[in-house]
């Protein structure tokens, strides 16, 4: 995956709180899956020994302290100015992917006569207070529907390789981010309220698979979506290897892969098995059509 070296990055939608604390946000609003919709929320207790009960307004985890880079939003703005920075630095690549994903969905919503609401991404290190309650970095990236924000601990991308056996790489990271923004689209459309229950045919599984499909739709259009500033695509190149790594990441976080590895059996499903996650990402990528992502039918 490559970015236009001369493109200007917009860091306003990414707040870097690594090494610092993000102040508490009042609870309330729509919540799904115990308050957070993410790749690993419900199975977090199986993998990391994290109590899913933390994902409520009554959680007690301390806000992000611990060791971190000490980076700030100002540092991010200074370091991540162009597509060339995105090609060479991970945090700048995150900014560029967020810019690209939101540019696509804003374009789609505008074309449909709707108003797209921006969803900021927060980078954090150890733990964070959200509108859905307190969370630690152990749960992986997640979207909180109560405050319309994506939360991302960059250490998850190392875990994706070391703990879940994914090949990793820039586009694997992009897939994860695009998946979380898929949940934001579900929130805006009201679909997120259908994500309940457990098991293969549950609403929670269908919600996750749809977010995978939405990630694929974005990937289909990534190299043609114009950047609002330049009018040119921010992402200039996606290879088949990039797509394969995205599919590999989708499989790595499938319920069957994770649960077999950590508890020896698959029950209950909450995010969908590896094959289905790959299938729905592929459906979005090959069709480029949001209409093809109706996993609830």
Verbal overview:
This protein has a five-stranded mixed beta sheet with strand order 2-4-8-7-3. A two-stranded antiparallel ribbon has the order 1-9. A two-stranded antiparallel sheet has the order 5-6. The chain starts with a strand and ends in a 10-residue tail after the last helix. The longest helix has 22 residues. It is globular, with a radius of gyration of 17 Å. The protein has one domain. β5 and β6 form a beta hairpin. The protein has ten helices and nine strands. About 21% of the residues have low confidence. The protein is an alpha/beta fold and 297 residues long.
For the record, give the distance between the C-alpha atoms at the N and C termini, rounded to a whole number: 33 Å
Overall pLDDT confidence = 77
Overall radius of gyration: 17 Å
Helical residue percent?
40-55%
| Largest sheet properties | 5 strands, mixed
Strand content: 5-15%
Shape: globular
Low-confidence stretches: 21-70, 254-266
């Amino acid at each position: 995956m490559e970015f236009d070296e001369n493109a200007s990055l917009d860091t306003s939608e990414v707040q870097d709180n690594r090494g610092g604390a993000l102040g508490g946000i009042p609870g309330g609003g729509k919540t799904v899956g115990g308050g957070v919709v993410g790749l690993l929320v419900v199975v977090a207790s199986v993998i990391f020994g994290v109590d899913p009960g933390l994902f409520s307004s009554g959680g007690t985890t301390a806000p992000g302290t611990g060791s971190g880079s000490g980076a700030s939003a100002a540092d991010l703005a200074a370091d991540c100015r162009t597509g060339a920075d995105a090609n060479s630095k991970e945090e700048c690549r995150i900014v560029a992917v967020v810019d690209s994903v939101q540019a696509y969905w804003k374009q789609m919503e505008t074309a449909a006569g709707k108003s797209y609401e921006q969803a900021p991404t927060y980078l954090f290190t150890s733990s964070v207070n959200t509108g859905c309650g307190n969370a630690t970095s152990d749960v992986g990236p997640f979207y909180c529907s109560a405050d319309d924000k994506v939360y991302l601990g960059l250490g998850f991308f190392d875990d994706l390789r070391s703990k879940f056996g994914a090949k990793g790489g820039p586009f694997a990271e992009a897939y994860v981010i695009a998946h979380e923004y898929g949940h934001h689209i579900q929130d805006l459309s009201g679909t997120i309220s259908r994500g309940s229950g457990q098991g293969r045919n549950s609403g929670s599984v269908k919600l996750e698979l749809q977010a995978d499909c939405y990630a694929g739709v974005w990937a289909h259009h990534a190299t043609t979506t114009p950047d609002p500033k330049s009018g040119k695509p921010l992402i200039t190149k996606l290879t088949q290897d990039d797509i394969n790594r995205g599919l590999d990441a989708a499989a790595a976080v499938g319920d069957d892969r994770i649960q077999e590895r950590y508890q020896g059996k698959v029950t209950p499903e909450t995010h969908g098995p590896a094959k289905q996650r790959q299938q729905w990402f592929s459906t979005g990528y090959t069709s480029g059509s949001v209409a093809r992502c109706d996993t609830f039918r």
